[in-house]
Design goal:
Blueprint lengths: L7 E4 L18 E4 L8 H29 L5 H21 L3 H27 L9 H25 L4 H29 L3 H6 L2 H50 L1
Antiparallel strand pairs: 1-2
Helix pairs in contact: 1-2, 1-7, 2-3, 2-5, 2-7, 3-4, 4-5, 5-7
């Protein structure tokens, strides 16, 4: 066999065992020993997630924005245009980018465009005998906007206030939780929007299925990266807390 596969095959009886005591005979009586799975670095995995997310987010934004502009942003098209730009594009990129200034700028743009989209829809609904915030789409959208607002507030608090170590860690965790929960709520709202009459009238069933699939996968890939950072922050907080406890014990023992 070729050496690059890093295994060797030898004939074994059913009673033969490896050095570790594990029987590795397959149905043909042959075994594969010493196989080494190809290693995938965390950086490569993260790069793949970011690339997939960017491709999907841009595709969704282009498909929706193009149709809304063709409709000259009339009525619901205006709400859809600004909300999609804020939720799908700006919020996704805010979570994907590691640069702090770009993260802040895109986060503010996401909230501003999203709030503008909500305001436009509320204004349209006021002209009709319709009740506000009764559908799943609108409820998740409102919850997402409020969570993003909380995320922005905690972000500015960390930026402007001189906090202690423990306060900074707790505020950072709260900021990430609000950001992630808000993003999931907003993308869930986006998924529910594909069942609305406006979308059904302007896109074929195939396009709607593609949009749903792209949105779902983009949400997963963006959340995976954000969860990695969240887990890193939690482990860092635990490590720093344990170090503080150890240092205090050492200091007390010396005294």
């Amino acid at each position: 066999m070729c050496h690059r596969y890093r295994y060797r095959i030898r004939q074994l009886r059913l009673s033969d065992e490896t050095e570790d005591g594990d029987i590795i005979v397959n149905a043909t009586g042959h075994s594969i020993e010493g196989f080494i799975w190809p290693e995938i670095s965390e950086k490569l995995y993260e790069s793949v997630c970011i690339t997939i997310s960017n491709m999907l987010v841009v595709s969704i934004t282009v498909i929706i924005s193009q149709k809304c502009l063709l409709l000259k942003l009339a009525r619901t098209a205006e709400h859809t245009f600004y909300s999609s730009l804020g939720i799908v594009l700006c919020m996704s990129e805010a979570l994907l980018l590691s640069d702090q200034m770009l993260h802040m700028a895109l986060g503010l743009m996401a909230f501003s465009l999203g709030a503008m989209g909500v305001g436009i829809e509320v204004r349209h609904k006021q002209l009709l005998p319709a009740k506000h915030f009764r559908s799943k789409h609108s409820i998740f959208g409102l919850i997402g906007c409020l969570l993003i607002l909380a995320s922005i507030c905690t972000g500015f608090w960390m930026l402007l206030q001189d906090l202690g170590k423990r306060q900074a860690i707790m505020l950072q965790l709260a900021h990430r939780i609000c950001s992630l929960a808000g993003y999931v709520a907003l993308m869930t709202s986006q998924l529910f929007s594909y069942n609305k009459g406006f979308v059904r009238r302007n896109w074929s069933e195939l396009y709607i299925r593609v949009l749903k699939f792209f949105t779902f996968v983009a949400t997963i890939t963006v959340c995976i990266r954000e969860l990695q950072h969240f887990a890193s922050d939690v482990l860092k907080a635990i490590d720093e807390e344990m170090n503080d406890i150890i240092q205090k014990d050492i200091h007390m023992n010396r005294n």
